[in-house]
From TrEMBL:
It comes from Gelidibacter salicanalis. Gene3D superfamilies: Aspartate Aminotransferase, domain 1, Type I PLP-dependent aspartate aminotransferase-like (Major domain). This is Adenosylmethionine-8-amino-7-oxononanoate aminotransferase. Pfam families: Aminotran_3. The keyword S-adenosyl-L-methionine applies. The keyword Cytoplasm applies. Pyridoxal 5'-phosphate binds at G110, S111, D236, H300, T301. The record marks L15 as: Participates in the substrate recognition with KAPA and in a stacking interaction with the adenine ring of SAM. InterPro entries: Aminotrans_3, BioA, PyrdxlP-dep_Trfase, PyrdxlP-dep_Trfase_major, PyrdxlP-dep_Trfase_small. Keywords: Aminotransferase, Biotin biosynthesis, Cytoplasm, Pyridoxal phosphate, S-adenosyl-L-methionine, Transferase. One of its GO terms (cellular component) is cytoplasm.
C-alpha cells in the first residue's frame, strides 16, 4: 500500500473536508526548492511550505547546526532555567527587530504568539488598574486558529460554531490611500464608545486574506492614533517577518513602532515549530512587580526549545548574509518583470507586490475551496509547481534561494494555467 492510501486510515488533515477532498500527496523528500513525492514526481515549492523554509528545505547550514545542538542539549524547562541557544537567539533577534523591542516571550506557533500578544495587551492595562476589554482589528485579518486569534481574525465561514465564544472585537478597514481620514474618524468614534485595550494587525500584507496589501502611510497614522490613546499595538508579523516585504520586518516601513510583535513561520527557517512574541520595555515593566500576580502566567512546555532556537539563530544569520539579501532583491526585480508581462492579461483583474510576495487576482469568480480553484491547484501540481490559490488569487512566496530557471517555470506555469480556465 502506498503512503497516501495508508494515510486515509488514521489521519485527519488541517483545513480539509475529507469527504470532498479525500486525496493527499505523500512527500518523501524536500531539498532546496524541490518537493519529491512517493511516486517520484517533483514540485517546486513556490509558497515555501506556507512561507516557512525561506532559505530552502533541508538547508545544510541550518541542519548541521541543529544536529550538533541535539547532541549537546535537547530540551529543558524554560522556567527557572536558561540556555545558550535562547540567549544567543535573543541577542541576534533584538538586534534586527525595530529599536523599541527589548524582551522576547516564547511559544510554539503563530496562533499562540498572537494569543500571548493579546494577553500582554489586556493584562498591561489590568496591571495599571485600567480595565479595558475591547480589541481592535482589521477587516479580513487572519491571526490563527486558537480562540483569541480567531476572535481578532475576520469572521469567516469556518468560525461559525465558535463565534458566540469570541472576545469583543471592533473592526476597521485597511488603509488604501483614500480612506485614511474616514478611518481616523471611525477610530475617534470607537474610542469614545469603548475601552480599547489593543490593536492586532498584519502590517502591510494580509496573508490569508489572499495577500491583500495596504498603505504604509495610512497604517502609520493608525498606529500613531493608537499610541496617543494608549491602545497597545500588536503587529502580527508571523507571515511578513524575516525579509518577505524587502525589509527584515514589515513594521520597518512605518516610523511608529509597534509595542508587541508576533513571529513564527520563517522564524525557524521551516525546520521546527516555534514562535516568539517580542515587546517593548514599557510592556515588560507593567508586569515587573513585587506582586506575583502581576506576572505573565503563560507558559508552554516546549518554550524556547534549544533545537528550535538553534534553527532560528542560523536562519537569522542567513537572512543577514549578502547572499540572501541579494536574492531578495533579485526575486523582487523578477516579480516586477513578471508583473509587466501578466498584468494586462484578459483573465487577470489586478496584481500586487510587496518585496518577494507577489499576487494576482483572476477576473473570475471562485469560491475559496471551490471546483475551479481545485482545477487550478491540480493543474499546478500536474505541472510540477506547488502553488495554493486562495480563491481566485494566485500568489507566489518562494524560498529566497529559488533559482532564476525555477522562478521562470513558476511564472510560465501560471501563464499556462490562465489558458485552461
Ligand atoms: C499562519 C499565520 C498565523 C497562525 O500561525 P500558525 O503557526 O498556523 O498557528 C497567524 N498570523 C498570521 C499572519 C499567519 O500568517
Amino acid at each position: 500500500m502506498t503512503l497516501k492510501e495508508r494515510d486515509k486510515k488514521h489521519l485527519w488533515h488541517p483545513l480539509t473536508q475529507h469527504k470532498l477532498h479525500p486525496e493527499t500527496i505523500a512527500i518523501v523528500k524536500a531539498k532546496a526548492c524541490t518537493l519529491t513525492d512517493e511516486d517520484g514526481n517533483t514540485y517546486i515549492d513556490a509558497i515555501a511550505s506556507w512561507y516557512t523554509c525561506m532559505y530552502g528545505h533541508c538547508n545544510p547550514f541550518i541542519t548541521e547546526r541543529v544536529t550538533t545542538q541535539m547532541q549537546q542539549l535537547d530540551q529543558v524547562v524554560f522556567s527557572g532555567f536558561t540556555h545558550e541557544p535562547a540567549v544567543k537567539l535573543s541577542e541576534a533577534l533584538i538586534a534586527i527587530l525595530p529599536d523599541n523591542q527589548n524582551k522576547l516571550f516564547f511559544s510554539d506557533n503563530g496562533s499562540t504568539s498572537v494569543e500571548i500578544g493579546i494577553k500582554m495587551a489586556l493584562q498591561y492595562h489590568f496591571n495599571h488598574g485600567d480595565k479595558r476589554s475591547v480589541l481592535l482589528a482589521f477587516e479580513d485579518g487572519f491571526h490563527g486558529d486558537t480562540f483569541g486569534a480567531m476572535s481578532v481574525s475576520s469572521l469567516s465561514v469556518y468560525n461559525g460554531p465558535f463565534e458566540d465564544f469570541f472576545l469583543d472585537v471592533k473592526r476597521i478597514p485597511t488603509p488604501n490611500g483614500d480612506n485614511h481620514e474616514a478611518i481616523l474618524n471611525l477610530l475617534e468614534k470607537l474610542v469614545l464608545e469603548h475601552d480599547i485595550a489593543g490593536f492586532v494587525y498584519e502590517p502591510l500584507v494580509q496573508g490569508a486574506a489572499a495577500m491583500k496589501m495596504h498603505n504604509a502611510e495610512g497604517l502609520n497614522q493608525i498606529l500613531k492614533f493608537c499610541k496617543a490613546h494608549q491602545i497597545i499595538t500588536v503587529a502580527d508579523e508571523v507571515m511578513t517577518g524575516f525579509g518577505k516585504t524587502g525589509k527584515h520586518f514589515a513594521s520597518d516601513y512605518m516610523d511608529t513602532m509597534p509595542d508587541i510583535i508576533c513571529m513564527s513561520k520563517a522564524l525557524t527557517a521551516g525546520l521546527l515549530p516555534m514562535a516568539i512574541t517580542s515587546c517593548s520595555q514599557d510592556i515588560y515593566d507593567a508586569f515587573y512587580s513585587d506582586d506575583m500576580s502581576k506576572g505573565l502566567f503563560h507558559g508552554h512546555t516546549y518554550s524556547a526549545n534549544p533545537l528550535a532556537c538553534t534553527a532560528a539563530l542560523a536562519g537569522i544569520e542567513l537572512l543577514q548574509s549578502d547572499d540572501i539579501q541579494q536574492n531578495i532583491q533579485r526575486i523582487s526585480a523578477a516579480h516586477q518583470q513578471f508583473n509587466a508581462r501578466i498584468k494586462n492579461h484578459p483573465k487577470v483583474k489586478t496584481t500586487r507586490q510587496t518585496g518577494i510576495i507577489f499576487a494576482l487576482d483572476l477576473d473570475i469568480e471562485m469560491e475559496r475551496y471551490g471546483n475551479l480553484r481545485d482545477k487550478l491547484l491540480v493543474f499546478f501540481m500536474d505541472n510540477g509547481v506547488f502553488l495554493r490559490p486562495l480563491g481566485s488569487t494566485i500568489y507566489i512566496q518562494a524560498p529566497y534561494i529559488i533559482t532564476d530557471s525555477e522562478l521562470e517555470k513558476v511564472y510560465k506555469t501560471i501563464e499556462n494555467a490562465l489558458e485552461i480556465l
